[in-house]
Amino acid sequence: GAGVSQSPSNKVTEKGKDVELRCDPISGHTALYWYRQSLGQGLEFLIYFQGNSAPDKSGLPSDRFSAERTGGSVSTLTIQRTQQEDSAVYLCASSTGSGHLYEQYFGPGTRLTVT
Amino acid sequence: LAKTTQPISMDSYEGQEVNITCSHNNIATNDYITWYQQFPSQGPRFIIQGYKTKVTNEVASLFIPADRKSSTLSLPRVSLSDTAVYYCLVGDKGNTPLVFGKGTRLSVIA
User: Fold this and answer.
1) Strand partners, A111
2) A81-97 in b/e burial notation, b at 16+ Cβ within 10 A?
C-alpha cells in the first residue's frame, strides 16, 4: 500500500518568509510525528499527534513553529518568519499507535533551504 | 530515557558479517531496544526490536546479553546496498517520540 508522503520534496525560501510543509500519513495510522534532521545529525523530535490532538509539543524550537492535523489524517507543519537555522530535512512518520513499541513509518522528507 | 552509545562509523567488505554494538548502561526494566536504518536521502526504516536474548528476522539479528546493558545488531553477508546509518534506540511503551542519536555510519566496500 501507499506509504507516508510529504510535499514539497524540496523548498527554497528567503529568510523571513513563511513555509508550509505537508504530510500524508498511512491510512488508518492514528499517531503522526514530525522530526527534523540537520546535515550529518540524528533526528530531532518536534511534535506528535494522536488523532487530531498534540499531547507533546515539547520539541518545537520556537513559537515560529506550529502544526495541525485535521480529520485524523493530513498534517501541516508551518514555520513563520523562517531563519537560516531552520534549514534542514523535515521528516514525518506515522504509526498505528503511540509509544516506543510501535514501528514508525517515515516519509522521504522535505528539504528546506532558507537563503 | 537511557542514553545510547554506538560507534560513529564502520567499514566492511561485501559478503562479510557486520556487528554493530550499542551500549545502554542505564536501560530500565521496561525498556525495549529498537534499531532503525537510514539510507541517504530517505527517512529511517525499522529493522528489528527486542527485549532480551536473541531476535532474528529476514534482515538482521539482534543479540541482547542477560544484563541488557548493550545490544548487538548483526547483518549477515552485507552488500553495497547495506551502506546506511544505523540507529540504536531504547524506550518503553510510554516513550512516544523516538530519541535518535547520531547513529553508526556503515560503509560497505566492494
Assistant:
1) A10, A89
2) ebeeebbbbbbbbbbee
- Say whether pLDDT at A1 is over 70: no
Q: Is the omega angle on the peptide bond into residue A108 within 30 degrees of 0, that is, cis?
A: no
Kindly tell me if the per-residue pLDDT of B1 is higher than 70. Answer: no
**Facing B45 at nearest CB: one of A55, A106, A109:** A106
Look at A16-20, A58-62, A103-107, B52-56 and tell me which has the smallest mean pLDDT: A58-62
The whole-number pLDDT of residue B94 equals 74
Question: What is the identity of the amino acid at B83?
Answer: T
Chain A contact probe: residue of B27, B48, B98, B102 with most A CBs at under 10 A: B98
